[in-house]
TrEMBL record:
Residues 1-26 form the signal peptide. It comes from the Bacteria. It comes from Abyssibacter profundi. Keywords: Signal. InterPro entries: DcaP (IPR045748). Residues 30-51 are annotated as: Disordered. The lineage of its organism: Bacteria, Pseudomonadati, Pseudomonadota, Gammaproteobacteria, Chromatiales. This is Porin.
């Protein structure tokens, strides 16, 4: 691995760090009772939501503008199919280029695609119930823009759901995922290879600490890197929370109904345990997940859902992953997160891991700046390996 060539960027970043910071990661979850749910890893009191009343409906707006600047040292050039995804953020093991002997290179990227807008409404009904809506968009993962002139990118749908009583209808974070366990990183996700991370349409029922949901199915088969929409039943996810601890389960049917190829199905599923524990002013977050046929649910497609065996039948792929994150407050306004995650699977990606270390400083609840170092690597079942190092600066203003 070549020496990380980041001294120039480091010199520019350190003075900017002194501007101040707030929460670096702002994934949101619909589990809270508030009109707009809180950020996943708030460091202190969040800025108030802007709201207004139209008739009986209260409308609240929040969001943020975020700039990310990254210098990344690769062992090989990233695959064209992974650009700009893998260069915008750590998009899991498959975004780490495999060493092909051609020599490493350093690439610099800057974008504001993570900037986000969230609109929520709350309307009392004649029957005494209240219906709430949540609409959330950003510009991440857009391939419709260009860096030549305008750097313009299309908005994408993140979440769009409404709640009525104990029911949720629409697109939201999977019930199998605990968004609140995500660590505070400048990277868009953080320990991508080792976390459950997925949003999709669903029908969810919540009763106290228990949730059950039917969620949109999709199967990804190793043969030819095929994604099928042949599923005949929805995925079933369950979740139970006891204080800071969350236990979630998943049961799904992985299917391929191709008369000219694979025409088979196999059952997949798994369990995930996660949580957050306070250690004085500091905190520890963790997640451990294991199962067979987890595929697209774990590590942002770190492995396929299933592969085809010698008899031409589908075989669910086993995989396990875990991360732990320790956040330390040096002062009430200055903090660091130390994050380690690892993935192990029986598919073409045999193992992967990442380390994140950052430094953030907060002046207000709205302004965020910080620096982060990240190292990630993966090893294939074939023996091929790859690694990358990244230095990232981010500035975010939340409203």
């Amino acid at each position: 691995m070549s020496v990380l060539r980041l001294s120039a960027l480091h010199g520019a970043i350190v003075p900017l760090l002194m501007l101040g910071a707030g929460p670096a990661l702002a994934q949101t979850t619909p589990s809270g009772p508030a009109l707009l749910p809180p950020d996943a890893a708030p460091a202190h009191k969040a800025p108030p939501h802007r709201s207004m009343t139209v008739g009986k409906t209260t409308v609240a707006i929040k969001g943020y503008i975020k700039l990310d600047a990254m210098m990344t040292d690769y062992e090989a050039r990233p695959a064209a199919s992974l650009e700009p995804l893998g260069r915008d953020y750590y998009a899991g093991p498959r975004s780490v280029p495999l060493d092909d002997g051609s020599g490493g290179l350093t690439l610099y990227d800057m974008h504001a695609k993570q900037s986000r807008l969230v609109v929520g409404t709350s309307t009392p009904l004649d029957n005494g119930q209240t219906i709430k809506t949540h609409l959330e968009v950003d510009f991440q993962n857009s391939d419709a823009g260009n860096e030549t002139i305008s750097n313009s990118y299309q908005p994408r749908l993140r979440q769009a759901f409404f709640t009525y009583g104990n029911w949720l209808f629409g697109q939201a974070w999977s019930t199998f995922q605990n968004v609140g366990a995500l660590p505070e990183t400048l990277d868009f996700i953080g320990p991508t290879e080792s976390t459950v991370f997925i949003r999709q349409p669903m029908i969810r029922y919540t009763k106290g600490r228990f949730q059950i949901a039917l969620e949109n199915p999709e199967s990804r088969i190793a043969a030819g890197d095929t994604t099928t929409d042949d599923n005949s039943v929805p995925d079933l996810s369950l979740r139970w929370q006891a204080g800071p601890l969350v236990v979630a389960g998943l049961l799904r049917s992985i299917e391929s109904q191709d008369p000219g190829g694979v025409d088979d199905s196999v059952i997949g599923g798994g369990i995930s345990v996660s949580g957050k524990f306070a250690v004085g002013r500091d905190d520890i977050k963790f997640m451990a997940t294991t199962g067979s046929g987890l595929g697209r649910y774990l590590g942002v497609l770190a492995n396929f859902d299933a592969q085809v065996d010698a008899q031409g039948d589908l075989e669910a792929i086993d995989s396990s992953a875990a991360f732990v994150a320790y956040r330390h407050f040096w002062t009430p306004k200055t903090r660091s997160s130390f994050v380690f995650g690892a993935f192990d699977g029986d598919g073409d990606v045999e193992s992967a891991s990442s380390i994140h270390v950052n430094l953030l400083h907060s002046v207000t609840s709205s302004l965020t700046t910080g620096v982060e170092l990240m190292h990630a690597e993966r090893e294939m079942a074939s023996g091929a390996e790859g690694a990358m190092d990244r230095l990232q600066f981010s500035a975010k203003y939340a409203f």
